[in-house]
Amino acid sequence: MSEIKPTEKTATEDNEAEQDWKAAKAFFDSLKTKVPRPPKPQNAVTIAVSSRTLFNMVAERKIFEDEGVEKYVAFQVEHENDPLKPGPAFPFVKALMNVNTRLRNLYPDSEELFDIVLMTNNHAQVGVRLINSINHYGLTIERFCMTGGKSPIGYLKAYMTNLYLSKNPEKVTEAIEEGIAAATMFMSKQESDLSDTQLRVAFDGDAVLFSDESEIIVKKHGLDTFFEHEKEFENKPLAQGPLKCFLEALGKLQRKFYAKNERLNCPIRTFLVTARSAASSGARVLKTLRSWGLEIDEALFLAGAPKGPLLQKIRPHIFFDDQMFHIEGANELGTISAHVPYGIGQKYNKGKLIETPEKKESGGIGEGSRARHEMD
Ligand SMILES: [Mg+2]
Protein backbone atom coordinates (compact mmCIF):
# COMPACT_ATOMS: atom_id res chain seq x y z
CA MET A 1 0.00 0.00 0.00
CA SER A 2 1.14 3.50 -0.64
CA GLU A 3 2.47 5.27 2.40
CA ILE A 4 1.22 8.67 3.51
CA LYS A 5 4.26 10.90 3.26
CA PRO A 6 4.59 14.11 5.22
CA THR A 7 5.40 17.15 3.11
CA GLU A 8 8.98 18.23 3.68
CA LYS A 9 10.33 21.70 3.00
CA THR A 10 13.76 23.18 3.29
CA ALA A 11 14.57 26.29 5.32
CA THR A 12 15.48 28.26 2.14
CA GLU A 13 12.14 27.37 0.55
CA ASP A 14 10.40 28.52 3.71
CA ASN A 15 12.34 31.77 3.69
CA GLU A 16 11.58 32.45 0.01
CA ALA A 17 7.91 31.65 0.52
CA GLU A 18 7.84 33.99 3.54
CA GLN A 19 9.28 36.83 1.42
CA ASP A 20 6.78 36.18 -1.38
CA TRP A 21 3.98 36.38 1.12
CA LYS A 22 5.27 39.59 2.64
CA ALA A 23 5.31 41.15 -0.83
CA ALA A 24 1.81 39.86 -1.63
CA LYS A 25 0.50 41.14 1.71
CA ALA A 26 2.01 44.58 1.17
CA PHE A 27 0.34 44.68 -2.24
CA PHE A 28 -3.08 43.80 -0.84
CA ASP A 29 -2.64 46.21 2.08
CA SER A 30 -2.05 49.02 -0.41
CA LEU A 31 -5.38 48.34 -2.15
CA LYS A 32 -8.55 49.97 -0.92
CA THR A 33 -11.14 47.20 -1.24
CA LYS A 34 -13.94 45.54 0.66
CA VAL A 35 -12.96 42.14 -0.75
CA PRO A 36 -11.39 40.09 2.06
CA ARG A 37 -7.67 39.53 1.63
CA PRO A 38 -6.65 35.90 0.97
CA PRO A 39 -5.05 34.40 4.09
CA LYS A 40 -1.52 32.99 4.23
CA PRO A 41 -1.47 29.26 3.34
CA GLN A 42 0.12 28.27 6.66
CA ASN A 43 -2.76 29.89 8.58
CA ALA A 44 -5.60 28.92 6.25
CA VAL A 45 -7.35 25.64 5.58
CA THR A 46 -6.75 25.50 1.83
CA ILE A 47 -9.24 23.72 -0.39
CA ALA A 48 -8.23 23.26 -4.04
CA VAL A 49 -11.05 22.48 -6.45
CA SER A 50 -10.88 21.77 -10.18
CA SER A 51 -13.11 23.71 -12.58
CA ARG A 52 -15.13 20.59 -13.41
CA THR A 53 -15.94 19.97 -9.74
CA LEU A 54 -16.89 23.58 -9.04
CA PHE A 55 -18.98 23.89 -12.21
CA ASN A 56 -20.97 21.47 -14.30
CA MET A 57 -19.02 21.26 -17.56
CA VAL A 58 -20.48 18.02 -18.91
CA ALA A 59 -21.64 19.58 -22.20
CA GLU A 60 -18.33 21.42 -22.65
CA ARG A 61 -16.35 18.26 -21.99
CA LYS A 62 -18.34 16.46 -24.68
CA ILE A 63 -17.26 19.13 -27.19
CA PHE A 64 -13.65 18.65 -26.06
CA GLU A 65 -13.88 14.87 -26.50
CA ASP A 66 -15.83 14.82 -29.77
CA GLU A 67 -14.46 17.87 -31.55
CA GLY A 68 -11.08 18.58 -29.97
CA VAL A 69 -9.43 21.33 -28.01
CA GLU A 70 -9.77 24.15 -30.59
CA LYS A 71 -13.56 23.80 -30.85
CA TYR A 72 -13.75 23.46 -27.06
CA VAL A 73 -11.85 26.70 -26.43
CA ALA A 74 -13.83 28.52 -29.15
CA PHE A 75 -17.11 27.41 -27.52
CA GLN A 76 -15.96 28.58 -24.09
CA VAL A 77 -14.89 31.98 -25.44
CA GLU A 78 -18.18 32.37 -27.35
CA HIS A 79 -20.11 31.64 -24.15
CA GLU A 80 -17.89 33.48 -21.73
CA ASN A 81 -20.76 35.67 -20.53
CA ASP A 82 -23.02 32.66 -19.82
CA PRO A 83 -22.38 31.53 -16.25
CA LEU A 84 -21.58 27.83 -15.90
CA LYS A 85 -24.06 25.74 -13.88
CA PRO A 86 -23.01 24.61 -10.37
CA GLY A 87 -20.99 21.38 -10.20
CA PRO A 88 -20.62 18.79 -7.41
CA ALA A 89 -18.23 20.87 -5.25
CA PHE A 90 -20.31 24.03 -5.55
CA PRO A 91 -22.58 23.54 -2.45
CA PHE A 92 -19.49 22.53 -0.42
CA VAL A 93 -17.63 25.70 -1.49
CA LYS A 94 -20.69 27.84 -0.63
CA ALA A 95 -20.83 26.20 2.81
CA LEU A 96 -17.10 26.91 3.36
CA MET A 97 -17.75 30.57 2.59
CA ASN A 98 -20.60 30.68 5.11
CA VAL A 99 -18.24 29.35 7.78
CA ASN A 100 -15.74 32.07 6.80
CA THR A 101 -18.39 34.77 7.31
CA ARG A 102 -19.05 33.48 10.83
CA LEU A 103 -15.30 33.26 11.57
CA ARG A 104 -14.69 36.82 10.33
CA ASN A 105 -17.46 38.10 12.60
CA LEU A 106 -15.94 36.41 15.63
CA TYR A 107 -12.28 36.97 14.76
CA PRO A 108 -11.97 40.01 12.44
CA ASP A 109 -8.16 39.88 12.34
CA SER A 110 -7.59 36.16 12.12
CA GLU A 111 -6.34 34.40 8.98
CA GLU A 112 -7.53 31.01 10.20
CA LEU A 113 -10.16 30.63 7.50
CA PHE A 114 -10.96 28.42 4.54
CA ASP A 115 -9.13 29.53 1.42
CA ILE A 116 -10.43 28.21 -1.88
CA VAL A 117 -8.08 27.79 -4.82
CA LEU A 118 -9.31 26.99 -8.32
CA MET A 119 -6.83 24.42 -9.65
CA THR A 120 -7.26 23.76 -13.35
CA ASN A 121 -5.27 22.73 -16.40
CA ASN A 122 -7.80 24.52 -18.59
CA HIS A 123 -6.65 26.76 -21.40
CA ALA A 124 -6.12 30.38 -20.22
CA GLN A 125 -8.84 31.50 -22.70
CA VAL A 126 -11.36 29.50 -20.66
CA GLY A 127 -10.29 31.46 -17.56
CA VAL A 128 -12.52 34.40 -18.47
CA ARG A 129 -15.66 32.23 -18.38
CA LEU A 130 -14.53 30.74 -15.08
CA ILE A 131 -13.93 34.20 -13.57
CA ASN A 132 -17.29 35.45 -14.88
CA SER A 133 -19.04 32.41 -13.40
CA ILE A 134 -17.31 32.85 -10.03
CA ASN A 135 -18.35 36.51 -9.95
CA HIS A 136 -21.89 35.66 -11.07
CA TYR A 137 -22.37 33.45 -7.99
CA GLY A 138 -20.50 35.83 -5.69
CA LEU A 139 -17.89 33.21 -4.73
CA THR A 140 -14.76 34.41 -2.94
CA ILE A 141 -12.09 32.65 -4.97
CA GLU A 142 -9.10 34.91 -5.42
CA ARG A 143 -6.51 32.28 -6.16
CA PHE A 144 -6.48 30.70 -9.58
CA CYS A 145 -3.93 28.16 -10.57
CA MET A 146 -3.92 27.40 -14.29
CA THR A 147 -1.43 24.58 -14.57
CA GLY A 148 -1.43 24.47 -18.39
CA GLY A 149 -1.51 20.69 -18.67
CA LYS A 150 1.14 20.07 -15.99
CA SER A 151 0.44 17.91 -12.94
CA PRO A 152 -1.10 19.95 -10.12
CA ILE A 153 0.97 18.26 -7.38
CA GLY A 154 3.70 20.91 -7.15
CA TYR A 155 1.10 23.66 -6.89
CA LEU A 156 -0.93 21.72 -4.32
CA LYS A 157 2.18 21.55 -2.16
CA ALA A 158 3.06 25.21 -2.69
CA TYR A 159 -0.41 26.23 -1.55
CA MET A 160 -0.13 23.82 1.43
CA THR A 161 -3.41 22.25 0.30
CA ASN A 162 -5.53 20.60 3.00
CA LEU A 163 -7.98 19.05 0.51
CA TYR A 164 -7.93 18.62 -3.27
CA LEU A 165 -11.12 17.81 -5.20
CA SER A 166 -11.02 16.82 -8.85
CA LYS A 167 -12.94 14.79 -11.43
CA ASN A 168 -9.71 13.11 -12.54
CA PRO A 169 -8.91 9.95 -10.51
CA GLU A 170 -5.29 9.83 -11.76
CA LYS A 171 -4.49 13.28 -10.35
CA VAL A 172 -6.32 12.45 -7.12
CA THR A 173 -4.32 9.22 -6.73
CA GLU A 174 -1.09 11.12 -7.37
CA ALA A 175 -2.03 13.69 -4.70
CA ILE A 176 -2.84 10.96 -2.13
CA GLU A 177 0.50 9.28 -2.83
CA GLU A 178 2.15 12.61 -1.96
CA GLY A 179 0.31 12.76 1.36
CA ILE A 180 -2.32 15.32 0.30
CA ALA A 181 -5.96 14.61 1.25
CA ALA A 182 -7.81 14.27 -2.05
CA ALA A 183 -10.94 12.78 -3.60
CA THR A 184 -12.66 12.32 -6.95
CA MET A 185 -16.06 14.00 -7.00
CA PHE A 186 -19.33 12.82 -8.47
CA MET A 187 -22.52 14.71 -9.16
CA SER A 188 -25.46 13.19 -7.27
CA LYS A 189 -28.30 11.74 -9.30
CA GLN A 190 -30.92 13.89 -7.56
CA GLU A 191 -30.79 17.28 -5.93
CA SER A 192 -31.22 17.51 -2.20
CA ASP A 193 -31.80 20.42 0.08
CA LEU A 194 -28.58 21.24 1.94
CA SER A 195 -28.07 23.43 4.97
CA ASP A 196 -26.98 26.97 4.20
CA THR A 197 -26.00 27.73 7.77
CA GLN A 198 -23.91 24.65 8.63
CA LEU A 199 -21.11 22.89 6.74
CA ARG A 200 -21.79 19.15 7.07
CA VAL A 201 -19.02 16.68 6.24
CA ALA A 202 -19.35 12.87 6.40
CA PHE A 203 -16.38 10.49 6.42
CA ASP A 204 -16.08 6.75 6.08
CA GLY A 205 -13.62 5.27 8.60
CA ASP A 206 -11.41 2.49 7.19
CA ALA A 207 -9.14 3.58 4.33
CA VAL A 208 -10.42 7.18 4.63
CA LEU A 209 -9.77 8.57 8.13
CA PHE A 210 -7.83 5.44 9.09
CA SER A 211 -5.36 3.33 7.12
CA ASP A 212 -6.61 0.18 5.40
CA GLU A 213 -4.86 -2.17 7.87
CA SER A 214 -8.17 -3.57 9.23
CA GLU A 215 -9.81 -3.57 5.80
CA ILE A 216 -7.02 -5.91 4.65
CA ILE A 217 -8.04 -8.41 7.37
CA VAL A 218 -11.71 -8.28 6.28
CA LYS A 219 -10.85 -8.78 2.62
CA LYS A 220 -8.29 -11.54 3.16
CA HIS A 221 -9.66 -13.43 6.17
CA GLY A 222 -13.35 -12.53 6.49
CA LEU A 223 -15.47 -10.82 9.11
CA ASP A 224 -15.00 -13.27 12.03
CA THR A 225 -11.21 -12.91 11.97
CA PHE A 226 -11.66 -9.14 11.66
CA PHE A 227 -13.90 -9.00 14.78
CA GLU A 228 -11.35 -11.04 16.78
CA HIS A 229 -8.50 -8.89 15.50
CA GLU A 230 -10.24 -5.61 16.38
CA LYS A 231 -11.08 -6.88 19.88
CA GLU A 232 -7.47 -7.98 20.43
CA PHE A 233 -6.06 -4.64 19.21
CA GLU A 234 -8.78 -2.43 20.66
CA ASN A 235 -6.23 -0.33 22.54
CA LYS A 236 -3.80 -0.01 19.64
CA PRO A 237 -4.70 3.10 17.61
CA LEU A 238 -5.13 2.60 13.87
CA ALA A 239 -2.64 4.35 11.58
CA GLN A 240 -3.84 7.51 9.89
CA GLY A 241 -5.59 7.43 6.52
CA PRO A 242 -5.56 9.98 3.68
CA LEU A 243 -8.37 12.22 5.02
CA LYS A 244 -7.31 12.38 8.68
CA CYS A 245 -5.53 15.71 8.22
CA PHE A 246 -8.65 17.30 6.73
CA LEU A 247 -10.74 16.22 9.74
CA GLU A 248 -7.98 17.70 11.91
CA ALA A 249 -8.21 21.02 10.03
CA LEU A 250 -12.00 21.10 10.48
CA GLY A 251 -11.50 20.40 14.19
CA LYS A 252 -9.08 23.34 14.47
CA LEU A 253 -11.75 25.71 13.09
CA GLN A 254 -14.53 24.13 15.21
CA ARG A 255 -12.52 24.85 18.35
CA LYS A 256 -12.47 28.55 17.45
CA PHE A 257 -16.27 28.54 17.75
CA TYR A 258 -16.16 26.55 20.99
CA ALA A 259 -13.73 29.12 22.42
CA LYS A 260 -16.42 31.78 21.88
CA ASN A 261 -19.07 29.62 23.54
CA GLU A 262 -20.64 28.68 20.20
CA ARG A 263 -20.47 24.90 20.52
CA LEU A 264 -24.22 24.43 20.14
CA ASN A 265 -24.32 26.89 17.29
CA CYS A 266 -21.19 25.67 15.51
CA PRO A 267 -21.40 26.03 11.70
CA ILE A 268 -19.26 22.90 11.11
CA ARG A 269 -20.53 19.40 11.86
CA THR A 270 -18.64 16.16 11.21
CA PHE A 271 -19.95 12.61 10.87
CA LEU A 272 -18.30 9.20 10.84
CA VAL A 273 -20.39 6.84 8.72
CA THR A 274 -18.82 3.40 8.92
CA ALA A 275 -19.90 -0.11 7.93
CA ARG A 276 -18.32 -1.37 11.18
CA SER A 277 -20.67 -2.51 13.93
CA ALA A 278 -20.52 -0.70 17.25
CA ALA A 279 -20.37 -3.73 19.58
CA SER A 280 -17.79 -5.85 17.79
CA SER A 281 -15.44 -3.34 16.18
CA GLY A 282 -16.55 0.19 17.09
CA ALA A 283 -14.42 0.77 20.18
CA ARG A 284 -11.12 0.72 18.30
CA VAL A 285 -12.09 3.57 15.95
CA LEU A 286 -13.44 5.73 18.78
CA LYS A 287 -10.32 5.10 20.83
CA THR A 288 -8.15 5.92 17.80
CA LEU A 289 -9.88 9.28 17.33
CA ARG A 290 -9.49 9.97 21.04
CA SER A 291 -5.76 9.12 20.89
CA TRP A 292 -5.41 11.70 18.08
CA GLY A 293 -7.21 14.30 20.19
CA LEU A 294 -9.90 14.55 17.50
CA GLU A 295 -13.61 14.81 18.03
CA ILE A 296 -16.24 13.72 15.57
CA ASP A 297 -19.72 15.11 16.24
CA GLU A 298 -21.67 11.98 15.33
CA ALA A 299 -20.43 8.42 14.89
CA LEU A 300 -22.79 6.08 13.05
CA PHE A 301 -22.08 2.36 12.98
CA LEU A 302 -24.08 0.65 10.25
CA ALA A 303 -22.99 -2.98 10.80
CA GLY A 304 -22.88 -3.58 7.05
CA ALA A 305 -26.20 -1.86 6.22
CA PRO A 306 -26.23 0.41 3.13
CA LYS A 307 -25.01 3.96 3.75
CA GLY A 308 -27.28 5.75 1.23
CA PRO A 309 -30.50 5.96 3.30
CA LEU A 310 -28.70 7.25 6.40
CA LEU A 311 -26.73 9.82 4.40
CA GLN A 312 -30.03 11.01 2.94
CA LYS A 313 -31.00 12.01 6.49
CA ILE A 314 -27.60 13.56 7.35
CA ARG A 315 -27.52 15.61 4.11
CA PRO A 316 -23.78 16.27 4.02
CA HIS A 317 -22.25 18.75 1.58
CA ILE A 318 -19.69 16.02 0.89
CA PHE A 319 -19.31 12.35 1.82
CA PHE A 320 -15.93 10.60 1.50
CA ASP A 321 -15.59 6.84 0.97
CA ASP A 322 -12.91 4.54 -0.47
CA GLN A 323 -15.32 1.98 -1.92
CA MET A 324 -17.14 2.72 -5.15
CA PHE A 325 -20.26 0.75 -4.23
CA HIS A 326 -20.83 3.00 -1.20
CA ILE A 327 -20.28 6.06 -3.41
CA GLU A 328 -22.76 4.75 -5.98
CA GLY A 329 -25.34 3.88 -3.31
CA ALA A 330 -25.04 7.34 -1.73
CA ASN A 331 -25.18 9.03 -5.14
CA GLU A 332 -28.37 7.23 -6.18
CA LEU A 333 -30.11 8.72 -3.16
CA GLY A 334 -28.94 12.28 -3.73
CA THR A 335 -25.76 12.52 -1.60
CA ILE A 336 -22.81 14.39 -3.11
CA SER A 337 -19.99 11.88 -2.85
CA ALA A 338 -16.23 11.90 -3.21
CA HIS A 339 -14.17 8.78 -3.83
CA VAL A 340 -10.85 8.35 -2.03
CA PRO A 341 -8.80 6.01 -4.27
CA TYR A 342 -6.69 4.48 -1.53
CA GLY A 343 -6.16 1.07 0.03
CA ILE A 344 -6.99 -2.56 -0.63
CA GLY A 345 -10.65 -1.74 -1.42
CA GLN A 346 -9.55 -0.50 -4.87
CA LYS A 347 -8.82 -4.10 -5.84
CA TYR A 348 -12.31 -5.32 -4.94
CA ASN A 349 -15.85 -4.76 -6.14
CA LYS A 350 -18.72 -5.70 -3.81
CA GLY A 351 -16.40 -8.00 -1.86
CA LYS A 352 -14.99 -9.74 -4.96
CA LEU A 353 -11.40 -9.41 -6.16
CA ILE A 354 -11.30 -7.61 -9.50
CA GLU A 355 -9.30 -9.53 -12.10
CA THR A 356 -7.06 -6.95 -13.76
CA PRO A 357 -5.48 -7.81 -17.11
CA GLU A 358 -1.72 -7.28 -17.31
CA LYS A 359 -0.83 -3.76 -18.38
CA LYS A 360 0.49 -3.53 -21.94
CA GLU A 361 3.34 -1.18 -22.74
CA SER A 362 2.11 1.41 -25.19
CA GLY A 363 3.96 4.08 -27.11
CA GLY A 364 0.89 5.93 -28.42
CA ILE A 365 -1.73 8.02 -26.71
CA GLY A 366 -3.56 5.50 -24.57
CA GLU A 367 -6.40 5.92 -22.08
CA GLY A 368 -4.05 7.00 -19.31
CA SER A 369 -2.33 9.78 -21.16
CA ARG A 370 -5.63 11.03 -22.59
CA ALA A 371 -6.98 11.23 -19.04
CA ARG A 372 -3.94 13.25 -18.01
CA HIS A 373 -4.50 15.74 -20.83
CA GLU A 374 -8.21 16.23 -20.36
CA MET A 375 -9.33 19.64 -19.12
CA ASP A 376 -10.07 19.48 -15.42
MG1 LIG B 1 -13.76 2.22 3.95
Secondary structure topology:
Elements: H1 11-30, E1 45-49, H2 51-54, E2 55-56, H3 58-67, H4 69-78, E3 85-86, H5 90-106, E4 114-120, H6 127-136, E5 143-146, H7 153-158, E6 161-166, H8 169-177, E7 182-186, E8 199-203, H9 213-221, H10 223-232, H11 244-258, E9 268-274, H12 278-291, E10 298-301, H13 308-314, E11 318-321, H14 324-332, E12 337-339, E13 348-349, E14 352-353, H15 367-373
Parallel strand pairs: 1-4, 1-6, 4-5, 6-7, 8-9, 8-11, 9-10, 11-12
Antiparallel strand pairs: 2-3, 7-12, 13-14
Helix pairs in contact: 3-4, 9-10, 10-12, 13-14
The site of magnesium ion (MG) has 8 residues, from loops.
Number of strands: 14
From the N-terminal CA to the C-terminal CA, the straight-line distance is 27 Å
Instruction: Write out the strand line-up for the largest beta sheet, numbering strands in chain order.
Output: 5-4-1-6-7-12-11-8-9-10
Low-confidence stretches: 359-372
Which CATH architecture of the largest domain would you pick? 3-Layer(aba) Sandwich
What is the CATH superfamily of the largest domain? HAD superfamily/HAD-like
Proportion of residues in extended strands: 15-25%
How many distinct domains?
A: 2
The count of helical stretches stands at: 15
Protein name: 5'-nucleotidase
GO molecular function, one term: 5'-nucleotidase activity
Organism: Gambusia affinis (Western mosquitofish)
Region (Disordered): 355-376
